[in-house]
Structure prediction request, 927 residues.
Amino acid sequence: MKELAENAIDHALRIGASYADIRIVEMQKENILVRNGQISELDMVDDLGFGVRVLVDGAWGFASSANVQKGEIGKKVELAVKIARASASLKAEDVQLAPEPPHRDIWVTPYTIDPFTIPLNEKLDLLMAIDEILRKSPQIAVAASSMSFRKKRQWMATSEGSLIYQTLLRSGAGFSATAVKDGDVQVRSYPSSFGGQYISCGYELVLSLRLLEKAPEIRDQAVGLLSADPCPSGKKDLILDSSQLALQIHESVGHPTELDRVLGMEANFAGTSFATMDKLGSFQYGSPIVNLICDNTIPAGLATCGYDDDAVRSQLWALVHEGRFIGYQFNRELAYKVGLGRSVGCNRADGWSHIPIIRNSNISLMPGDKTYDDLIGSVDDGIFMSTNRSWSIDQKRLNFQFGCEIAWEIKGGKLGRMLKNPNYQGITYEFWRSCAAIANSDHWTLWGVPNCGKGQPGQVAEMSHGASPALFTNITVGVGL
Amino acid sequence: MDQSTAKGLTDQVLSLSSADETEVLFSNAEENLTRFSNNAISQNVSRNIRDLSVKVLLGKKVGRASTDRFDAASLQRVVGTALLAARQQHDNPHLLPLPEPQHFMPSPTAFNSRTIDFSPEERAAAIRHLVEEAQKHQTVAAGIFSTGGEAVALANSKGLFTFHRSTTAIFSGTVESGDGSGWAEDVQRNVDMIDVRQVANTAIKKALDSRNPRQIDAGAYTVVLEPAAVSDFLMFMAFEGFGGLNYVEGRSFLSGNLGKRIMGDNVTIVDDAYSALNPGLPFDFEGIPRQKVVLVEKGIARGCVHDRISAAGSGVQSTGHSLPQPNSTGAIPLNMVMSPGTDAMEDMIKSTRRGVLVTHFHYSNVLDPIKLSLTGMTRDGTFLIENGKIAGPVKNMRFTENIIEAFNRIEMVSPDQQTVNAFFSGSFIVPALKIANFNFSSVSEF
Prediction:
């Protein structure tokens, strides 16, 4: 692989590139889903390919192929150079890459048990056992339990002398129960929606989740929601659990602080951002207890790696400090736009066939000083919502409406009746400014997001967001018709 | 990839399998896409991806494995992995045998070699036109010009083989002028049919017209929805309601309602891969011929699309709408056509005393799958209509609406339809609509 990569770089430089990189990526995936007693998804994926990125005349070109042979790589290098020349015919300015020292390194996700060594029948037996428990109630129309494993091996070489080999491993598992009665559809998921929990680690994740143990409770909650009262409408104090906060962070902090969005590079698809550069350093993004950091070095994070796809070493930095907006997520190409001499290292590609683009990092809300009981006890009239069910936010990331699977009423500092179809609506900075209390680190969880879409052609990336439950005051809840 | 090469590859894989029954699904896609923003090309890529998926049946057990490596050792390995997966399972008494060879109707051609061969220089030239027009008006353009195609072949050990190729070209532009924003898009099978000037003119005009938007109160308005806005609703109908699995499990707005009126009598929606407007795959991913299915006829719920599993649950035959099996989604329609009406968009506006014109929606999502309650934001050109005329731009608003109910309040349907790109190489053909009492639940700041 090293020789193929170095040949590609040499070839690109010989025919006119001022910069070139190549990533050769081998991906192994295993996706298993048991649905209503049957194997509903089962795919063992073995995928290999390469992508070549070049700068010619100050503009980008990229070409990729599944055929990792010397001749094919040469052809794609030439295509990438041809494409870059076409890009240069309509450029605003030359691309400038912020300096990064060359890295020659190996990086591997720490794990205990390689999930690809666990026999399929062992995994299926566990999923079938969960499925059986979930379907013990006749009102459960759909029981779904799943596991997902991904091992990515990437060789990256750049014309600046970086040569990096990384093995990234992540595991995911979870289940959901969908109850249906008289035109009402209610869902409960564990540990979270979108297939459960995802962590950069091995099969030890599955063993730690207590999936069988939790199945009866989750099933009964789904059935209970069918006869629950709907979430009331109005302005209420709102406590979000950490998994819903992960979604809130992703949509209302992560995407608006991606610098490519801020600079209009996603204007035609994902959108732009309200967090414009004139606000950096002065804008009150949240209340003074709100601290949000990016950390692509944190153990278990889905964006955690040694180096991003610009060959920049992973870092930790702040987006919001004591409520004040102080940072962006950016790559080597855009670092100089914020007057910084080095990328923060969040340029990542979806496999070998895509170019790297700025992606959300592992962004987390720092824990506060309250216990969970403190939080609940401080609310006289409010709602506690858990587990995301729906999400929608405008293209500048201001007006949002998020729905959860389940909620409980809070009256006089105590949790009360279960509520169905809970949702809440707001404006991003007003919402974060209303953050009145955050639970402490005992309640902090890092949640994996496996399905973040962005870019044209569309790319999917994975990242994690950590949070403890938090209280937001005077929020519009129960938005209906 | 041509048909004979695909046949050679699938035959080779079938010969390697010792399973009782074996299916090979092959796909190869090429995508060439130039992306621009701030009046300059910002990204420019060429992708060529391929996938070979092998499904094996051992008695009542099934295994599946995929690879993009086509050397002999890798093909042997992918078959071996699928067999190993099958051996490690318990019997599934509901597992269906692979289908026998089928008779496939030809569908209108969806392939155009010009779309495949279109060069990066030609894409840049088209983008230059939009950028130069945008600059003439002191506006800023972003967008894509995407050209490419996909080949799909399906073969099984019972002798079934089928192959299809399609191409797609998309030219899409968003133009910003201060606080104004406009968008337009053209989707064609043949790249030479892309109307770059029309996209440029429409996006620029909307951007200029939408400057200095005023805020209006949330609430119920008559809306005139351009086809791109309507397409969001059809996409969620496809996923949440028109599939046989949701229907069988009581999770669809069609459940218990076939033969009953669910929408206004001016609504007819069919899935038709054989329409000249909307040519699609003539087979599904089980190898069953894709049928034209009437989903809603003059407001009456007429049917849903099935794969063989949901068909068995409903006591009917598959309509040929399976996704690759096994899957948890069930069948979905890929080539929906909503029938046109007789009222031009100009007439919709003229007949509206007070309403809102929507260019398209952003980030719509489902609140209730049975009512098809959705929420989403307007984007890139939202205008107030007063006394039959466009009165000016308004700030973007969030809708929260039961779409099935809203489709009972459609007052006008346009004769013009627009092609909107969908999933699995499919596309939808949609008209513009005028709908009464459409609910906006809040307003954004821009």
Remarks:
- Chain B has two domains: 3-203, 213-446.
- DSSP finds ten helices and 17 strands in chain B.
- Residues 213-446 of chain B form one domain.
